[in-house]
Amino acid sequence: RVFFSKENPSLTAFENLQDTYTRNDNVLIMLLPRSGTVFDPHVLKAVQELTEKAWQVPYSSRVDSLSNFQHTWAEGDDLMVEDLVPDADQLSGEDLERIRSVALHEPLLVNRIVSPDGRATGVNITIELPGKDPTREGKEVMAHVHRLVDEMRARYPDIDWYLSGIVVMNEAFPRATQDDMKHLVPLAFLAIVIGLWLFLRTALGTLGVVLVILFSIIMAMGSAGWLGIRLTPPAASAPTLILTLAVADGVHFLITYMFSLRQGQSRHEAVVESLRINFHPIFLTSLTTVIGFLSMNFSDAPPFHDLGNIVAMGVTWAFVLSVTFLPAWAAIMPIRARARKERQHLWIDGLADFVIRRRRPLLAGGLALGLGLSALVPKNELNDVFVHYFDETMTFRQHADMVDKHLAGLYFIDFSLDSGEAGGVADPEFLRQVEAFANWLRKQPGVRHVASITDVFKRLNRNMHGDDPAWYRLPEQRDLAAQYLLLYEMSLPYGLDLNNQINVDKSATRLSVQLEIMSTNEVLDLERRAEAWLKANAPKLATRGASPTIMFANIGKRNIRSMLLGTTVALVLISLVLVFALRSLKLGLISLLPNLLPAGMAFGIWALLVGEVGLALSVVTSMSLGIVVDDTVHFLSKYVRARREQGLAPEEAVRYAFHNVGVALF
Questions:
Q1: pLDDT per residue over 310-327, tens digit each?
Q2: Angle between the 548-582 and 592-609 helix axes, to the nearest 10 degrees?
Q3: According to the model, what pLDDT value does residue 433 have?
Q4: Domains plus CATH for the chain?
């Protein structure tokens, strides 16, 4: 839920539904015997044992499985209600056939608790977290579940065990983040260190920049901790971003510093000269980068606020350290700038000459290429599959895919259908409309299972007519339906009541639609068609679907809209900063092209290669704006200095900018 603000309408709808019925945050444990079906005494024994132990999972409020499904049948005028598998140790061949027949013909079980071919079965544990500390509570649940599954796996090695469910996914996100931080940050850091040494050719200079990077990351993450910012998966990528951004300030300072040393200046004079030349552009790049990342606060997903704020703090600390700590380090440490031919400048000077000579075709060609690729941006389709955020090598992804193959997994949509009066769920007309909606949903592509209270009513009606299959239909009289429901509820054991399907005053029922893994566009299309069906065929029941699946399906589109505003605000502010800093409206306007075109070109290429944009990519423009503007500022500041301080002509000023900052930009 950290991805959704309190004002998010999808979250509000889901929480209202959760407050009305039993919460459906869950852990699903799927059992897949390596041979045969689940209708085997050994497997059913494992199911029964797991079901009993699952009640001990912290914050569990309900456990549903093949063994404790409340099977009903008639004995004379009596309604009998009993576990489908009362005692797995005492099952005869006839019992096994009866269990198989009931399970594979029960709409509430097939594709939800047992696969249609009988190869797999699930134990679904409903979890009600107190919500005081969701992260700690979720870890507590999963720690117990992992111990339980390990114990069961040891006892039943001929059964494969898989975990899925909302609580499992919530735990998988931070675990994936921690794994990324363990591997990506050190690798990125190593690459930066090697690149710095190859570029600067000074161990002490490289060490100074590395310390700036380290301190910037530590101080940013520490500041975030003091401010109470939670380390969500997006926010956890902040160290990598700070790592790449903090290096630029130090490199620009050291390049000028070592150039001054080669010119014969003392270390103190070289520090002063480097600060004189670089303080202004370093300040500008830091300010514009901070503006770019702060624009992520316009995002509809709070974790991206945190990411933007942490990176902004890291960039700020990097600026402070680059103009205080690094100059002090350079003044004290014997950093050597070896006298050598500046071979690395030969190619950059050649590039400058080439750009000046070919400026017209390069400008026309660059604009044509940039605008041409940017024109492809609308071809990107807003689409996402949030399970695919996890790589196929990750255990969670493997388990989710396997559960989706055999049962209904993570994706679901709930509809709360209101009869408009207390006790109205027993009204035959209301039930007929609910039944028609459920039957329509079952025919839709991607729908694996529909849990409807009408299936319970039809089963009870058949039971109360001597289990005659001809009576497997909805009761035609309201009072009879109400009596059946009351009789059934009074027979249910603790924890297996109907509050997961009916609200307290029996005025509304929850229709749960479980789906296969699908894209957000497919989810939203199904929701739209379902709403349209209700409006056309049962207007009094018209409502919107609610679930985490719907929440994630909608957030990408909402985030795109909010980030368009954020990017626009950031672009205006950055342009104003550049106009005032460079004291040139013309240069401020010119800077718009190199600041905007890279993101447009990148999304154009993405449209050609992939064509789909998800939640993670919806903030790329703001992020890239904050990064790309650095190059623009450094180049233009050197150009302006050459024009105003040295009185150079435009062509020579361009050569000066290339010579002094081109290598560092590269």
A1: 999 999 999 999 999 999
A2: 150
A3: 97
A4: 9-164+392-545 (no CATH), 171-375+553-665 (1.20.1640.10)
